[in-house]
């Protein structure tokens, strides 16, 4: 699945066009045998009303529509008795973004055929991304009701049914309505787009407001963290014609708000007296509440504090509750002057410090690597690589997440080579069911999953069998009980091993690992490590090596000192690199540029069939035009020592035995060397 090309899959092998054609020819409305209108598809452990009646939209109202106005959806929704809070918020987001909505609900104009003779067939189809592919899900239009009231998500228009039908398709994809309760809004954003969801814990150290020092200024660490958060929001904030961030903010438990704009403005007095006092701009975030229904609640200052229960937040309320005294004083006329405007009456502005103080999570869905009309040119510059894998106790590939345990290295491993420092995203997603099916009776709770990215030897080609001190984790994505976890950041040039895991060993699950990197001429390479380290073996028992492997040696090239320039070199500083040769295999470090004490800290592993032959270490001066010049070299016997051992070797103009005193010294190299005769552990 490397270089994954997402394709459209017919869920349950149901073809919408064939179903529609057959229903119209037979003059009957579609009844879905794969997801029948029975109480059993709701679930087994939730409270189900005893008087549920499954009705088609035409039996609920006189003039049903898929969309009342497809070109302008009303994002204000309300939940039904069976609705999940996150589903309501996800549908509200979808209603705001026509490009995504039109992909999830294809051919919406043609599908909206209620009451049209010769076109209405009682079937609808939706497209949802699921573990690497777009699934085309067909449903009939039977919906659960009690006393003619829908029990699922609905819009304010009683004759509009796209949300209820989409929720039914989502429930079918996951096995039941009950199964949706294990998911979150971050999962829905991924399923609507195929992107990567990132969850920021706003209660983590550094984001939340802290006690200020005596001078009244925020603590530096907290301020720096909020500045980083602001930069992230500004980077991801939506433009009028673009797609932006999505948030799940905990004003009400399980209630998500949408970030619709981010600005930095000057608040407070703007007279000449204060103009040059070094005032800083205040970060402001515009939020939208997707659940506003009914009449508008008065938001005048007189009504605040009167005991009235407000149906939603407004800028007036946010100002009066704000931690920012300047924002408390801003009037509506001043707000307009500052450009803090609204697109509808469901929005309100808040300073960033209030956002991180009042809310719990920020969810962003990045559309990197997505294929579709809603992906802009910047997002298409990402390259996607993907692998599916298993944690399976019976095959010994479920080692758990404790990196200190010997079983950790039993997990699946993926080799990642980076030729130059790069920004990347890593996404780990677990499949819903162990066997990949969607049976309502086989649904299980998400496992706690995470992954580590470990820096390894530059020339490693085989699986890790032990985590030696020179193999250090550079990223540890914490284990979480979520369907998906991700990391975004920068990694330097080098070779790494990505190890996805469950927190507990011996847990079975299937997963999808996706890597996103900015497209370049030489992209990052990712492949699964399936070849085991060679035991002391012969050709007949080890197809990867000819002859018999006796020793395995790791050489960590740390630094060099007191290097003497070759006679032909100018007096300026040297750019140098090391080259190691062992039984026909040659590797070289990066070039240490213009340093008196060049430092590399790069490691290499060699599997040796002839341990009596030493490893040749050479240091070269890098030249831009002329051939590179040899500074000095030495031979390493690298005998068995079973542990990483520091070693300082002297360089000579040509190779000499370690105990030779005849040749002059032209510098030294600081190494760490490990040699094992039990090669299976390297």
Could you characterize what this model shows?
It is a single chain. This protein has about 675 residues and is an alpha+beta fold. The protein folds into four domains: about 180 residues, no CATH class; about 170 residues, Cathepsin B, Chain A (Alpha-Beta Complex); about 150 residues, Jelly Rolls; about 130 residues, C2 domain (Immunoglobulin-like, Sandwich). It is built from 13 helices and 30 strands. The strands form nine sheets. The chain has a five-stranded antiparallel beta sheet with strand order 18-17-20-15-22, with no helix packed on it. A hairpin with a 2-residue loop joins strand 4 and strand 5. Helix 3 runs parallel beside helix 7. The chain is elongated and about 105 Å long.
Please provide a brief summary of the model.
The chain is α+β, with helices and mostly antiparallel strands.
Protein topology:
Elements: E1 8-10, H1 16-26, E2 53-55, H2 57-60, E3 77-78, H3 85-96, H4 98-104, H5 108-111, E4 123-130, E5 133-140, E6 143-146, E7 149-150, E8 154-155, H6 162-174, H7 185-193, E9 196-201, H8 220-236, E10 258-265, H9 272-275, E11 282-288, H10 315-320, H11 325-329, H12 332-337, E12 347-351, H13 352-358, E13 361-366, E14 382-391, E15 414-418, E16 422-430, E17 449-455, E18 472-480, E19 484-491, E20 494-502, E21 509-518, E22 525-528, E23 551-561, E24 576-582, E25 585-588, E26 599-608, E27 615-621, E28 629-636, E29 645-650, E30 668-676
Helix pairs in contact: 3-7
